[in-house]
Amino acid sequence: MQLNKLADQVIEVGKTAGAFIREQYFLFNEKNVEVKSLNNLVSFVDITAEKMIVEELKTVFPEAAFLTEEKTIEESKSEWLWIIDPLDGTTNFIHGIPTFAVSIGLIHKGKMKLGVVYEIMRNECFSAYEGNQSQLNGQPIGVSERKTLADSLIATGFPYEKFDFIPQYLKTLSHLMQNTRGIRRIGSAAVDLSYTACGRFDGFFEYNLNPWDVAAGAFIVQQAGGQLSCFSGSDNFIFGREILAGNGLINRELLQVIQQNNSTSTNAIGTNS
Ligand code: IPD
Ligand code: CA
Ligand code: CA
Fold first, then answer.
1. Looking at domain 3-140, does it have CATH number 3.30.540.10?
2. For the residues 191-210, what does the mean pLDDT come to?
3. What is the average per-residue pLDDT within 120-129?
4. Fold classification of 149-260 (topology level)
5. 156 three-class SS
6. Considering the chain, what is the average pLDDT of its residues?
7. Which of 209, 212, 214, 242 most suits a substitution to test ligand 1, by most atoms within 8 Å of the C-beta?
């Protein structure tokens, strides 16, 4: 398996789906929105884009199985697995906010091998494959060099369908508001991770994400010199439904804030501790 060649092909697949999504963005009508579950929206755009990606990847690499958000193809077993979110940032897309991406990751026996995140409206393609530095539009990228939370810009995703961990989360946000340069919620985990990989953000954390939200972006952070974990510190961040990514210099400080608030929180809004 020549991962460099495969990466080029996957970039083309991502861009083709991205071109379709871009076209639909300008034509989109709210009548096309369907509700999958609370605040979890979808339209024919997500589904068509996923079918396009799956069809092309089947030709590119027939041995691999698929895990996709919209379930347009049945999950099957193989040592190789594509993990795909055809449109990460659907709520932004539907509301006319131009931040959303195609996300395609590939794992082999549980180990990430390749990731592509195409941020469509900025025409920015983030990519990585094993053994190589992550790239943005073909140029190498690296994480930031900021050493403290005080100097950092941190990205996150707000809970929107599962609310039992809100008290802990608000305490962490309260601390970060008072002890960082700022917090951003841009509405696409794949973009949050890609921006961490190229040093725009110094760190990112979110609860309750799925593998297709994070697989490609997490690998791009890793291959850009960053570090990732769950909130326990373990490395099950692709399937573990919680993720902390950072430049490696502020991870520990950010993790400590999250862990401290997770273990002590009882009130909805905490103080800066
Ligand atoms: C969502 C985005 C968002 C995150 C959500 C995800 P979707 O993905 O990544 O930033 O906060 O948890 O579900 O639904 O737009 O593909
Ligand atoms: Ca997603
Ligand atoms: Ca999606």
1. yes
2. 98
3. 98
4. D-Maltodextrin-Binding Protein; domain 2 (3.40.190)
5. strand
6. 94
7. 209
